[in-house]
Each structure stands twice: as C-alpha cells, then as structure tokens.
Design the sequence.
C-alpha cells in the first residue's frame, strides 16, 4: 500500500465524502466545458455555452436531442465515473470498493442472473411507489407544484431522447441512457459513497440507504424519488450479498435498457402511455404483473440466500 493510499484510508469518512463530492462537482463543470465543443463538432450546436443551452432547450430538433445525449454522456464519465475512479485509486483495492475483486462471491454468476430477475420483477412495484410518491406530496401544495414542473421538464427531455428512428440512434441512446449510467453511477454511489457511510456508521444498512437516498436525490425527479430510492437500495444489497459491483451495474443497465428498448420497439404509443405510470388505472393486469414480480423476487432471493456473503465493515 502506498503512502498516499494509507493516508487517504486514515482520513475521516466525512472528509472522504466531501472530497469525492468536490471531484464530482468539478467533473460537472468540465463536462459543460468539453461538452460545448464536442456537441458543436458532432451535433452542430455552435461553439458557445449560450448556443449549447439554446440547442438543448429545443428538443423538437435533432441537434437538441444530440446535444442532450452528448452532455449526459460526458457528465456521467467526468462527474460520476471520475469521482468513483478517484476514490478507488486513492483508497486502494478492498472489498466493496469500486470494481475490486477482493471479497467477490464464488457464485457471482448466479448473482448476475438473480440481479436481472429481481430488477425485472421489481418493475411493477416501482410503478406503485411512483403513484404513492405523487400522492404523498399532496396535490395542489407548493412542493407538489414544483415537483410537477421538474417532472414535466424531465419527461419532455426523456421522451425526446427516446424517439429513435434508426438503429444508430438506438445504440447511441442505449449507450448514453443505459450503459454509462449503469457503470458510472454505480461506481460512485455503490462503489464509493456506500462504503464510506458504512464505515462511518459501522452499519452496512446505513451505508446502503444513505447512498440510495443520495442516488435518488441527484436526479431531481421527486415524483420518482421513492421508486429510485428503493431501486438504489436494492442495488446496494446486491453489492453486499455478492461482494461485487457487477450485479448492481447489470441490474441498473437492465432497468434503464428496458425503457430504451421498449421505446424503440413499441414507439410513440408506449412513449405516450407508458412513461407516466400515474396516469393509468390499477386493474387486474397490474395485480397479475405485481404477483408475478413478487414471485420472481422471492424465488430469486430464496435461491441466492445460501450463497450470500455479507461484506464486513472494516476500519481499513
């Protein structure tokens, strides 16, 4: 272990957390800087920040959609991925840190399969918690009004980016919305923030739920706060049970990738009706899918239970 890694490990967890947040915020600034020129080169949006912002606000044309995908991708790499990488390098290899193989479960392949099944099985419950989340904000309140405005803007951008006409657009969107967030966000939240708070509190559950809370909060979509919180916690427990970040990455990819593939395959009809679960009514179909999802989750957890290896919270 190098002197720098030893010194970093001995820092207070709060200082480590502040450090990676500073790295992440710096990455966001760099993402805007580089994104302006890269977007101008690839999307033809103009080589100034004002022109980039103007283009990104116009989601009715291809340069605007292209610019959003480009900036989102660069932000994932420089803000989330870079912060996770910086923590991993400074801390050094250890169980639960980044993509470290130390402490990896010998049944990792089975956990990867379980991650896919559990993520797909959780989908109907995410819809239900989305409805509960919106109801808890109280329709007509100031918070509800603000959240609704943010949600509408996020929905407008998401729907525009998911309108894909060619296979080239499909793969570009899949990479920007599913691949990069799965790797970069999990690296930061489950591979860095989760072990920081687990060590700080001495409790792995606190580490999981704090990182899940922060993971949901940074999306600034408050109607979906509870669903994303539960999803983040689920990913956290996958990491703890498997001793590896890869099941969480795969689960995250499946969750986002299903939306991209559904938009590509089902087209405008799915975009108009499927993107907002609170607009549809709950009926027999929803009850059946929820029952199937619950059975899939319970069956997978039971199958993996005897293969679980819980990561220890160490003072390394």
Sequence:
């Amino acid at each position: 272990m190098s002197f720098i890694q030893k010194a970093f490990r001995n820092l207070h967890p709060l200082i480590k957390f502040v450090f990676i947040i500073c790295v992440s915020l710096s990455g966001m600034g760099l993402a805007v800087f580089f994104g302006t020129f890269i977007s101008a080169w690839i999307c033809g949006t103009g080589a100034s920040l004002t022109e980039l912002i103007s283009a990104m606000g116009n989601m009715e044309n291809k340069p605007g959609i292209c610019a959003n995908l480009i900036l989102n991708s660069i932000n994932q790499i420089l803000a989330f991925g870079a912060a996770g990488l910086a923590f991993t390098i400074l801390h050094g290899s250890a169980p639960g840190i980044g993509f470290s193989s130390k402490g990896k479960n010998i049944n990792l392949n089975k956990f990867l399969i379980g991650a896919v099944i559990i993520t797909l099985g959780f989908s109907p419950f995410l819809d239900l918690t989305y409805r509960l989340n919106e109801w808890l904000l109280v329709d007509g309140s100031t918070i509800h009004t603000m959240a609704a405005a943010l949600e509408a803007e996020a929905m407008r951008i998401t729907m525009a980016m998911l309108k894909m006409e060619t296979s080239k657009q499909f793969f570009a969107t899949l990479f920007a919305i599913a691949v990069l967030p799965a790797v970069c966000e999990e690296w930061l939240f489950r591979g860095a923030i989760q072990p920081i708070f687990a060590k700080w509190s001495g409790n792995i559950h606190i580490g999981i739920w704090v990182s899940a809370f922060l993971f949901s909060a940074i999306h600034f979509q408050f109607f979906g706060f509870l669903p994303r919180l539960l999803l983040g916690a689920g990913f956290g427990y996958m990491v703890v049970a498997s001793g590896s970040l890869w099941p969480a990455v795969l689960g995250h990819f499946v969750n986002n990738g299903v939306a991209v593939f559904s938009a590509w395959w089902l087209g405008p009809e799915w975009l108009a009706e499927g993107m907002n679960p609170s607009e549809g009514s709950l009926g027999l179909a929803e009850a059946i899918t929820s029952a199937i999802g619950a059975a899939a989750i319970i069956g997978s957890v039971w199958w993996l239970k005897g293969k679980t290896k819980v990561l220890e919270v160490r003072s390394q």
